[in-house]
Amino acid sequence: MRILGVDHLEFYVGDARQTAYFLCAAFGFRIRGQGGPQTGLSGQRSLLLRHGDIHVVLTTGLEPDHPATEYVSRHGDGVAIIALAVDDVQNTYTELVAKGATGLGEGRVAGFGDVIHRLVQRDGGPFTLPGIELSEDSEPDDGLLEVIDHLAFCVPAGELATTSKYYQDVFGFDEIFEEYIEVGSQGMDSRVVQSGNHAVTFTIIEPDPMRTPGQIDDFLSWHAGAGVQHIAFRTSDIIRAVQTFADRGVGFLSTPASYYDALSERLTPVDVPIEALRKHSVLVDEDHWGQMYQIFTQSMHIRRTLFLELIERHGALTFGTSNIKALYAAKERELAAAAEPGGKDA
What we know:
Layout: E1 3-12, H1 16-27, E2 30-35, E3 44-51, E4 54-61, H2 67-75, E5 78-86, H3 89-98, E6 103-105, E7 108-110, E8 116-120, E9 133-134, E10 148-154, H4 160-169, E11 174-183, E12 186-194, E13 201-207, H5 215-222, E14 227-234, H6 238-247, H7 257-261, H8 263-266, H9 274-280, E15 283-286, E16 291-296, E17 307-314, H10 321-339
Parallel strand pairs: 1-4, 5-8, 10-13, 14-17
Antiparallel strand pairs: 1-5, 2-3, 2-9, 3-4, 6-7, 7-8, 10-14, 11-12, 12-13, 15-16, 16-17
Protein backbone atom coordinates (compact mmCIF):
# COMPACT_ATOMS: atom_id res chain seq x y z
CA MET A 1 0.00 0.00 0.00
CA ARG A 2 1.39 3.37 -1.04
CA ILE A 3 -0.41 6.64 -0.40
CA LEU A 4 1.01 9.11 -2.89
CA GLY A 5 -0.70 12.39 -1.97
CA VAL A 6 -3.96 14.31 -1.75
CA ASP A 7 -5.64 13.79 -5.12
CA HIS A 8 -8.49 16.25 -4.57
CA LEU A 9 -10.91 17.62 -1.99
CA GLU A 10 -14.67 17.46 -2.35
CA PHE A 11 -16.71 20.12 -0.61
CA TYR A 12 -20.40 19.69 0.02
CA VAL A 13 -21.94 23.14 -0.32
CA GLY A 14 -25.33 24.78 -0.49
CA ASP A 15 -24.64 26.45 -3.84
CA ALA A 16 -21.76 25.11 -5.94
CA ARG A 17 -21.90 27.93 -8.45
CA GLN A 18 -21.78 30.64 -5.81
CA THR A 19 -18.85 28.98 -4.02
CA ALA A 20 -17.03 28.50 -7.33
CA TYR A 21 -17.51 32.17 -8.17
CA PHE A 22 -15.89 33.17 -4.86
CA LEU A 23 -12.92 30.80 -5.19
CA CYS A 24 -12.31 31.86 -8.79
CA ALA A 25 -12.75 35.60 -8.23
CA ALA A 26 -10.82 35.75 -4.94
CA PHE A 27 -8.20 32.99 -5.14
CA GLY A 28 -7.72 32.54 -8.87
CA PHE A 29 -9.16 29.04 -9.20
CA ARG A 30 -10.48 28.06 -12.63
CA ILE A 31 -13.43 25.81 -13.50
CA ARG A 32 -12.09 22.71 -15.26
CA GLY A 33 -15.23 20.58 -15.50
CA GLN A 34 -18.79 20.00 -14.36
CA GLY A 35 -21.29 17.21 -13.93
CA GLY A 36 -24.82 16.42 -12.86
CA PRO A 37 -27.73 14.10 -13.64
CA GLN A 38 -27.01 14.47 -17.37
CA THR A 39 -23.50 13.04 -16.87
CA GLY A 40 -24.47 10.24 -14.49
CA LEU A 41 -24.17 12.08 -11.15
CA SER A 42 -27.60 11.31 -9.77
CA GLY A 43 -29.17 13.88 -7.45
CA GLN A 44 -26.31 16.37 -7.51
CA ARG A 45 -24.47 18.99 -9.46
CA SER A 46 -20.69 19.28 -9.22
CA LEU A 47 -18.01 21.66 -10.44
CA LEU A 48 -14.30 20.81 -10.72
CA LEU A 49 -11.91 23.67 -9.90
CA ARG A 50 -8.16 23.80 -10.18
CA HIS A 51 -5.28 26.10 -9.21
CA GLY A 52 -1.77 24.73 -9.69
CA ASP A 53 -1.90 21.09 -8.59
CA ILE A 54 -4.84 21.76 -6.25
CA HIS A 55 -8.09 20.15 -7.40
CA VAL A 56 -11.37 20.94 -5.65
CA VAL A 57 -14.80 19.47 -6.39
CA LEU A 58 -17.84 21.47 -5.25
CA THR A 59 -21.00 19.38 -4.93
CA THR A 60 -24.54 20.51 -4.19
CA GLY A 61 -27.29 17.99 -3.51
CA LEU A 62 -30.48 18.31 -5.55
CA GLU A 63 -32.54 15.93 -3.42
CA PRO A 64 -33.35 15.97 0.33
CA ASP A 65 -31.74 12.58 0.99
CA HIS A 66 -28.57 13.15 -1.03
CA PRO A 67 -25.42 12.92 1.17
CA ALA A 68 -24.41 16.47 0.20
CA THR A 69 -27.80 17.85 1.23
CA GLU A 70 -27.67 16.03 4.57
CA TYR A 71 -24.06 17.13 5.20
CA VAL A 72 -24.81 20.81 4.55
CA SER A 73 -27.92 20.64 6.73
CA ARG A 74 -25.83 19.33 9.64
CA HIS A 75 -22.46 21.03 9.18
CA GLY A 76 -22.89 23.83 6.67
CA ASP A 77 -20.48 24.04 3.73
CA GLY A 78 -17.33 22.03 4.32
CA VAL A 79 -14.84 19.38 3.25
CA ALA A 80 -16.69 16.06 3.10
CA ILE A 81 -14.20 13.95 1.12
CA ILE A 82 -10.40 13.94 1.19
CA ALA A 83 -9.39 11.90 -1.83
CA LEU A 84 -6.05 10.12 -1.54
CA ALA A 85 -3.94 9.16 -4.54
CA VAL A 86 -2.74 5.55 -4.25
CA ASP A 87 -0.82 3.11 -6.43
CA ASP A 88 -3.54 0.42 -6.37
CA VAL A 89 -7.12 1.18 -5.27
CA GLN A 90 -8.32 -2.37 -4.71
CA ASN A 91 -5.27 -3.58 -2.80
CA THR A 92 -5.15 -0.40 -0.72
CA TYR A 93 -8.86 -0.63 0.07
CA THR A 94 -8.52 -4.26 1.11
CA GLU A 95 -5.50 -3.51 3.31
CA LEU A 96 -7.12 -0.48 4.98
CA VAL A 97 -10.24 -2.45 5.84
CA ALA A 98 -8.13 -5.35 7.14
CA LYS A 99 -6.33 -2.88 9.43
CA GLY A 100 -9.56 -1.54 10.88
CA ALA A 101 -10.96 1.08 8.50
CA THR A 102 -14.69 1.04 7.89
CA GLY A 103 -15.18 0.20 4.21
CA LEU A 104 -17.90 2.18 2.45
CA GLY A 105 -17.61 0.56 -0.98
CA GLU A 106 -16.50 2.03 -4.29
CA GLY A 107 -12.97 2.60 -2.98
CA ARG A 108 -14.09 4.73 -0.05
CA VAL A 109 -13.28 4.35 3.64
CA ALA A 110 -14.28 6.30 6.73
CA GLY A 111 -11.89 8.94 7.99
CA PHE A 112 -12.87 10.93 11.08
CA GLY A 113 -16.23 12.45 12.00
CA ASP A 114 -18.30 12.54 8.80
CA VAL A 115 -15.23 12.93 6.55
CA ILE A 116 -14.61 10.16 4.02
CA HIS A 117 -11.44 9.15 2.17
CA ARG A 118 -11.86 8.29 -1.50
CA LEU A 119 -9.02 6.26 -3.02
CA VAL A 120 -7.96 7.31 -6.51
CA GLN A 121 -5.55 5.57 -8.86
CA ARG A 122 -4.15 7.52 -11.79
CA ASP A 123 -2.07 6.04 -14.56
CA GLY A 124 -1.08 9.19 -16.41
CA GLY A 125 -3.26 11.34 -18.65
CA PRO A 126 -5.45 14.31 -17.70
CA PHE A 127 -7.13 14.72 -14.33
CA THR A 128 -10.56 13.11 -14.63
CA LEU A 129 -13.35 12.04 -12.28
CA PRO A 130 -16.38 9.85 -13.01
CA GLY A 131 -19.37 11.96 -14.01
CA ILE A 132 -17.30 15.12 -14.57
CA GLU A 133 -17.06 16.45 -18.12
CA LEU A 134 -13.85 18.42 -18.56
CA SER A 135 -13.96 21.89 -20.06
CA GLU A 136 -12.23 22.14 -23.42
CA ASP A 137 -11.03 25.69 -22.89
CA SER A 138 -10.20 27.44 -19.65
CA GLU A 139 -8.02 30.45 -18.93
CA PRO A 140 -4.85 29.82 -16.92
CA ASP A 141 -4.80 30.34 -13.16
CA ASP A 142 -2.69 32.95 -11.34
CA GLY A 143 0.17 30.58 -10.64
CA LEU A 144 0.13 31.74 -7.01
CA LEU A 145 -0.95 28.46 -5.40
CA GLU A 146 0.87 25.17 -5.84
CA VAL A 147 -0.30 22.22 -3.73
CA ILE A 148 -2.19 21.39 -0.55
CA ASP A 149 0.44 21.65 2.18
CA HIS A 150 -1.70 20.24 5.00
CA LEU A 151 -5.21 20.05 6.41
CA ALA A 152 -6.19 20.72 10.02
CA PHE A 153 -8.98 18.82 11.79
CA CYS A 154 -10.80 19.66 15.00
CA VAL A 155 -11.95 16.69 17.08
CA PRO A 156 -13.82 16.57 20.41
CA ALA A 157 -11.86 16.41 23.65
CA GLY A 158 -10.55 12.90 24.27
CA GLU A 159 -10.35 11.93 20.57
CA LEU A 160 -6.95 13.37 19.65
CA ALA A 161 -4.87 10.33 20.58
CA THR A 162 -7.28 7.83 19.04
CA THR A 163 -7.55 9.80 15.79
CA SER A 164 -3.77 10.06 15.51
CA LYS A 165 -3.42 6.35 16.25
CA TYR A 166 -6.03 5.53 13.60
CA TYR A 167 -4.00 7.24 10.88
CA GLN A 168 -0.80 5.64 12.14
CA ASP A 169 -2.12 2.09 12.51
CA VAL A 170 -4.44 1.99 9.50
CA PHE A 171 -2.89 4.36 6.95
CA GLY A 172 0.74 3.89 8.00
CA PHE A 173 1.32 7.57 8.80
CA ASP A 174 3.98 8.79 11.24
CA GLU A 175 3.28 11.17 14.10
CA ILE A 176 5.85 13.92 13.50
CA PHE A 177 4.84 16.73 15.86
CA GLU A 178 3.01 17.24 19.14
CA GLU A 179 2.28 20.56 20.83
CA TYR A 180 0.16 21.94 23.66
CA ILE A 181 -0.94 25.50 22.87
CA GLU A 182 -2.08 28.11 25.38
CA VAL A 183 -3.87 31.26 24.27
CA GLY A 184 -4.91 33.27 27.31
CA SER A 185 -7.06 31.06 29.50
CA GLN A 186 -7.67 28.58 26.68
CA GLY A 187 -5.73 25.44 25.91
CA MET A 188 -5.61 22.97 23.05
CA ASP A 189 -3.59 19.89 22.17
CA SER A 190 -2.35 19.16 18.67
CA ARG A 191 -0.62 16.31 16.90
CA VAL A 192 0.57 16.08 13.31
CA VAL A 193 0.52 12.86 11.28
CA GLN A 194 2.16 12.50 7.90
CA SER A 195 2.47 9.91 5.15
CA GLY A 196 5.85 8.26 4.65
CA ASN A 197 6.57 10.30 1.51
CA HIS A 198 5.63 13.58 3.31
CA ALA A 199 2.95 14.33 0.68
CA VAL A 200 -0.06 14.08 3.03
CA THR A 201 -0.04 15.97 6.34
CA PHE A 202 -2.92 16.18 8.80
CA THR A 203 -2.87 18.42 11.88
CA ILE A 204 -5.32 17.16 14.51
CA ILE A 205 -6.50 19.48 17.28
CA GLU A 206 -8.64 18.95 20.38
CA PRO A 207 -9.70 21.44 23.07
CA ASP A 208 -8.49 21.16 26.66
CA PRO A 209 -11.72 20.62 28.68
CA MET A 210 -9.97 21.80 31.86
CA ARG A 211 -9.45 25.30 30.43
CA THR A 212 -11.85 28.05 29.32
CA PRO A 213 -13.85 27.01 26.23
CA GLY A 214 -12.51 28.74 23.12
CA GLN A 215 -12.27 28.64 19.36
CA ILE A 216 -11.90 24.86 19.04
CA ASP A 217 -14.99 24.36 21.19
CA ASP A 218 -16.75 26.96 19.03
CA PHE A 219 -15.79 25.09 15.87
CA LEU A 220 -17.07 21.78 17.24
CA SER A 221 -20.33 23.41 18.27
CA TRP A 222 -20.92 25.41 15.08
CA HIS A 223 -19.81 22.55 12.82
CA ALA A 224 -21.80 20.03 14.89
CA GLY A 225 -18.86 17.70 15.45
CA ALA A 226 -15.40 16.91 14.13
CA GLY A 227 -14.40 18.39 10.80
CA VAL A 228 -11.80 20.12 8.65
CA GLN A 229 -11.04 23.48 10.25
CA HIS A 230 -8.64 24.82 7.65
CA ILE A 231 -6.78 23.97 4.45
CA ALA A 232 -3.24 25.21 3.90
CA PHE A 233 -2.24 26.06 0.33
CA ARG A 234 1.47 26.24 -0.41
CA THR A 235 2.80 29.18 -2.39
CA SER A 236 6.26 30.21 -3.56
CA ASP A 237 5.55 33.93 -3.07
CA ILE A 238 3.38 34.53 -0.02
CA ILE A 239 3.74 38.32 -0.11
CA ARG A 240 2.48 38.56 -3.70
CA ALA A 241 -0.27 36.04 -2.98
CA VAL A 242 -1.52 37.94 0.07
CA GLN A 243 -1.42 41.27 -1.77
CA THR A 244 -3.24 39.83 -4.80
CA PHE A 245 -5.94 38.07 -2.81
CA ALA A 246 -6.42 41.01 -0.44
CA ASP A 247 -6.93 43.31 -3.43
CA ARG A 248 -9.75 40.96 -4.47
CA GLY A 249 -11.46 41.26 -1.12
CA VAL A 250 -10.02 38.36 0.88
CA GLY A 251 -9.69 39.19 4.57
CA PHE A 252 -6.57 38.04 6.42
CA LEU A 253 -5.94 37.89 10.15
CA SER A 254 -3.82 40.72 11.54
CA THR A 255 -0.72 40.47 13.72
CA PRO A 256 0.42 43.03 16.35
CA ALA A 257 3.43 45.15 15.34
CA SER A 258 5.30 43.95 18.44
CA TYR A 259 5.52 40.47 16.89
CA TYR A 260 7.88 41.82 14.20
CA ASP A 261 9.98 43.91 16.59
CA ALA A 262 11.38 40.74 18.16
CA LEU A 263 11.96 38.71 15.00
CA SER A 264 15.61 39.59 14.57
CA GLU A 265 16.31 38.40 18.13
CA ARG A 266 14.30 35.18 17.84
CA LEU A 267 15.32 33.94 14.38
CA THR A 268 18.32 33.63 12.13
CA PRO A 269 18.37 36.22 9.31
CA VAL A 270 14.92 36.24 7.70
CA ASP A 271 14.77 35.54 3.96
CA VAL A 272 11.83 37.91 3.32
CA PRO A 273 12.11 41.60 4.31
CA ILE A 274 10.61 42.09 7.76
CA GLU A 275 8.81 45.26 6.68
CA ALA A 276 7.02 43.29 3.95
CA LEU A 277 6.01 40.69 6.53
CA ARG A 278 4.80 43.42 8.90
CA LYS A 279 2.80 45.19 6.16
CA HIS A 280 0.90 42.03 5.26
CA SER A 281 0.76 40.41 8.75
CA VAL A 282 2.68 37.35 7.56
CA LEU A 283 4.21 35.22 10.33
CA VAL A 284 7.65 33.63 10.15
CA ASP A 285 9.24 30.79 12.11
CA GLU A 286 11.86 28.13 11.59
CA ASP A 287 12.74 24.54 12.41
CA HIS A 288 15.94 22.51 12.02
CA TRP A 289 15.61 22.53 8.22
CA GLY A 290 14.67 26.11 7.38
CA GLN A 291 12.05 28.83 7.60
CA MET A 292 8.29 28.98 6.97
CA TYR A 293 5.91 31.88 6.38
CA GLN A 294 2.21 31.59 7.23
CA ILE A 295 -1.04 33.54 7.35
CA PHE A 296 -4.70 32.63 7.91
CA THR A 297 -7.66 34.08 6.08
CA GLN A 298 -10.69 35.22 7.98
CA SER A 299 -13.40 32.58 7.93
CA MET A 300 -15.41 32.48 4.70
CA HIS A 301 -18.22 30.58 6.34
CA ILE A 302 -21.44 31.91 7.84
CA ARG A 303 -20.85 29.60 10.82
CA ARG A 304 -17.28 30.94 11.17
CA THR A 305 -15.82 27.46 10.84
CA LEU A 306 -13.79 26.73 7.69
CA PHE A 307 -10.95 29.07 6.68
CA LEU A 308 -7.77 28.90 4.59
CA GLU A 309 -4.06 29.26 5.22
CA LEU A 310 -1.23 30.29 2.94
CA ILE A 311 2.22 28.89 3.66
CA GLU A 312 5.60 29.36 2.00
CA ARG A 313 8.38 26.98 2.99
CA HIS A 314 12.05 27.78 2.71
CA GLY A 315 13.28 24.33 3.67
CA ALA A 316 11.13 23.95 6.82
CA LEU A 317 9.52 20.54 7.15
CA THR A 318 7.39 20.94 10.28
CA PHE A 319 5.48 23.77 12.01
CA GLY A 320 7.01 26.51 14.10
CA THR A 321 5.88 26.55 17.72
CA SER A 322 5.74 30.35 17.84
CA ASN A 323 3.71 30.53 14.63
CA ILE A 324 1.10 28.09 15.91
CA LYS A 325 0.45 30.16 19.00
CA ALA A 326 0.47 33.43 17.05
CA LEU A 327 -1.93 32.08 14.43
CA TYR A 328 -4.43 30.94 17.03
CA ALA A 329 -4.10 34.18 18.96
CA ALA A 330 -4.92 36.02 15.73
CA LYS A 331 -7.99 33.84 15.29
CA GLU A 332 -9.08 34.74 18.82
CA ARG A 333 -8.84 38.44 17.97
CA GLU A 334 -10.98 37.90 14.87
CA LEU A 335 -13.67 36.06 16.82
CA ALA A 336 -13.65 38.65 19.60
CA ALA A 337 -13.99 41.51 17.10
CA ALA A 338 -16.87 39.77 15.34
CA ALA A 339 -18.73 39.35 18.63
CA GLU A 340 -18.58 43.05 19.53
CA PRO A 341 -21.58 45.34 18.86
CA GLY A 342 -21.32 46.48 15.27
CA GLY A 343 -18.91 43.66 14.45
CA LYS A 344 -19.07 41.47 11.37
CA ASP A 345 -21.63 39.14 12.87
CA ALA A 346 -23.80 41.84 14.39
